[in-house]
Design brief:
Number of domains: 1
Strand order of the largest sheet: 1-2-3-4-5-7-6
Low-confidence stretches: 167-173
Mean pLDDT: 91
Strand content: 25-35%
Structural class: alpha+beta
Number of helices: 6
Order of helices and strands: EHHHEEEHEHEEH
Number of strands: 7
CATH superfamily: Gcn5-related N-acetyltransferase (GNAT)
CATH class: Alpha Beta
Amino acid sequence: MNSPVTVRPARVEDAAEMARVLVRSWQETYRGLMRDEVLDDPGFPDARERFWTAAISDERYRESRAAVAERDGEIIGVALAGPPEQPEPGWATHLYVLYVVAAEHGSGAGAALLDAVIDPHDAAALWVADPNPRAQAFYRKHGFRPDGAVQVDDGVREIRMVRAAAERERDRE
């Protein structure tokens, strides 16, 4: 029997494992949507480790929240949310990262990570790959809706999804 998933704030000493989880998740999620040269770049894990180290310890990210999901002491998911780079009316928190390794999809780790980095009552926004029906369904379940904004990042089409502050309250009734 599997032990339960636990979620906790990320620590600097988690950065290498967080990078491993993010790279694995990108490879599982974006293969076929993103260029293989990006996904298989030997420098990708080191770059992601530097990112996580900064996101957890650098003063620039002081208003951000980073969390990890673990099972049996192994990190299986990562999340990061914080103020948007360009503030927009209607939401003050941006979900920058939420990945759970494919073997743990459906375990509750994603929902727990989301709630760990964004208060369930707060308005928020995120960008999600399109197509990525599984992720989009997950975000819809948590009150996020496409707002019509589209961008292409590293060759991947993304749509923005936004959750109004009242969305979660309506969903609970």
